[in-house]
Amino acid sequence: MNNKKIAKLNLPNGKVIELPVISGSLGPDVIDITSLYRQADMFTFDPGFTSTGSCKSDITFIDGDQGILLHRGYKIEDLAEKSSFLETSYLLMYGDLPSKEKKLEFVNSITMHTMLNEQISNFYRGFKDNAHPMAILCGVVGAMAAFYHDSTDINNADERKIASYRLIAKMPTIAAMAYKFSIGQPFVYPNNSLNYSENFLNMVFSVPAEKYEINPIFADALDKILILHADHEQNASTSTVRLAGSSGANPFACIAAGIASLWGPAHGGANEAVIKMLNEIESIDNIKKFIDKAKDKNDSFRLMGFGHRVYKNYDPRARVLQKIAEKVLKEKHLLDNKLFDLAKELEYLALNDDYFKEKKLYPNVDFYSGIILKAIGFPVSLFTVIFAVARTVGWISHWNEMISDQNSKIGRPRQLYTGKPQRELS
Ligand code: SDX
Fold first, then answer.
1. Known catalytic residue: 232?
2. Cα(50) to centroid(ligand 1), Å
3. Going by C-beta distance under 8 Å and a sequence separation of 6 or more, which residues neighbour residue 97?
4. What is the pLDDT of residue 193?
5. Neighbour count for residue 201 (Cβ, 10 Å)
6. Across residues 162-175, what is the average pLDDT?
7. Ligand 1 test: best mutation among 304, 308, 313, most atoms within 8 Å of CB?
8. Residues 229, 308, 315, 398: which is the catalytic one?
9. Which of 41, 54, 72, 78 would you call most buried, defined as having the most Cβ atoms within 10 angstroms of its Cβ?
């Protein structure tokens, strides 16, 4: 008995076509429509890809209804509690947690690539001093394509590896330099005696004029924030990196494309937008007014940090971030933090509102992350930059997975044409 699953499609012209149904290891089956156009002379239509799988992947699994997020099978809550960002990076890239030796080798390799080619620092002086750090990050990462020519042959696994390590290692350096430039302070070089998150704090907050004491609570909180933002399946920026990479483009240019996509307020830019929204709400008395605005169809306002294309339950990352926020605010004796109190009350009122319950809108990863980053001392303009620093390993892991797949093809969607029929130019 042929146990292959199929889906039958009855076409308007009476033809019935059969399409294979494929099962993954977790999650819903998919209908393979690769042959649809050839069989039916029709395309599918799914702007926003709400019902479309773009690829096979072994890296991350999300169950939006249950609020489950797995990286190579491990729960995000467990990784945030027990792993480190670089260990999780190794897991995302290679598929398994590293042995003690492999972890040491990986950490040392990343550490040996934290410095930038000194010429790259000239780019910063070309920006206006009020340039948004995401604009600088986008520009400088793209410019890396003009420097590291020995790591751009995407068909060479060793070159792909060195390009990947350079990006993971240099993103904190590039990000910190963007911040230093914006406040007119000297760049701080990486310090290879510090771990990844300590080094980032040092490059952002230390100044040559005095000793900088790294707060271990803040370094640990930052490392967990990086873990929680490292990867998230086929989100907009990861899909951007995959599509850019599918043409064989330079790896640094592909990551720059991912940074550009992440910057949007509907995606990674939401963490910055949440803080701006909470400041605009200003008082618990105003929350109901803003919730009503978010529900008003004629008002484009949305509760930033709420809702998600996939999660129709609580984003598991938001739960962990709320706990981290409590810990960091306690460290700073800020437990009566106005923004945090506002966020918790907003969450409580929204989650008890029929509109949000009916549309299954819950806090997402961006709702509490900004409160933590602000309490550590990061400016709001760096929030999405920190998201990009973390997500680089996710982008890189998906890029490598796609390039290593012998069957991968250039991404080239079709369309429903609604323009003018052919007409003569008189
Ligand atoms: C990230 O994809 C990922 O995985 C992304 C991410 C990752 O790690 O990579 O998880 C990171 O980007 C998190 C999301 C951050 N963005 C925000 O917090 C911005 C606010 N949220 C929304 O704009 C929205 O919820 C999206 C963009 C996140 C999801 O939008 P969808 O899936 O396209 O859903 P939708 O816009 O179709 O909304 C469904 C309904 C709509 O009402 P109807 O048209 O059906 O009447 O819910 C409403 C929306 O109006 N709605 C909201 C809302 N989000 C959705 N209403 C009020 N406030 C909101 N925040």
1. no
2. 12
3. 74, 83, 87, 90, 91
4. 96
5. 21
6. 98
7. 308
8. 308
9. 72
CB distance 245 to 402 below 8 Å: yes
User: Relative to the CA of 231, which ligand 1 atom is closest?
Assistant: 8
Ligand 1 neighbour 399 (Cβ under 6 A):
no
Spatial contact of 99 and 108, defined as CB atoms under 8 Å apart:
no
Taking CA 383 as the corner, what is the angle to CA 107 and CA 85, rounded to the nearest 5 degrees?
20
Residue 263 has pLDDT above 90, yes or no: yes
Question: What is the mean pLDDT of the segment spanning 230-257?
Answer: 97
Contact, 318 vs 371, CB < 8 A? no
pLDDT tens across 169-210, in order? 999 999 999 999 999 999 999 999 999 999 999 999 999 999
Question: Could you tell me which residues are beta bridge partners of residue 207?
Answer: 210
Mean pLDDT (whole number) for 56-85: 97
pLDDT at 334 over 80: no
Residue-level pLDDT at 409: 94
Model confidence at 332, pLDDT cuts 50, 70, 90, reads: confident
| d(C-alpha 18, C-alpha 35), whole Å | 9
Residue 359 Cβ contacting ligand 1 at under 6 Å: yes
CA atoms of 155 and 165, how far apart (whole Å):
16
Identify which of 253, 237, 244 has the alpha carbon closest to the alpha carbon of residue 163: 253
Please report the sign of the dihedral spanned by the C-alpha atoms of residue 210, residue 174, residue 170, residue 89. Answer: positive
How is residue 6 annotated by DSSP?
Answer: E
| Nearest Cα residue to atom 4 of ligand 1 | 235
Two tokens, residue 317: 């990352």
* Residue whose C-alpha is closest to residue 98's, from 108, 194, 167, 219: 108
Name the residue at shortest CA distance from atom 20 of ligand 1.
Answer: 304
- The answer to whether residue 366 is catalytic is yes
Q: What is the pLDDT of residues 368-408, one digit of tens each?
A: 999 999 999 999 999 999 999 999 999 999 999 999 999 99
Nearest to 84 by CA among 113, 114, 104, 57: 104
DSSP state of 223: H
Q: pLDDT band at 149, cuts 50/70/90?
A: confident
Residue of minimum CA distance from atom 32 in ligand 1: 309
Nearest alpha carbon to residue 179 among 237, 123, 133: 133
Strands 74-75 and 30-31: unpaired
pLDDT in tens, 98-133: 999 999 999 999 999 999 999 999 999 999 989 999
Compute CA distances 421 → 37, 42, 349, 350, 424, whole Å.
22, 18, 51, 48, 10
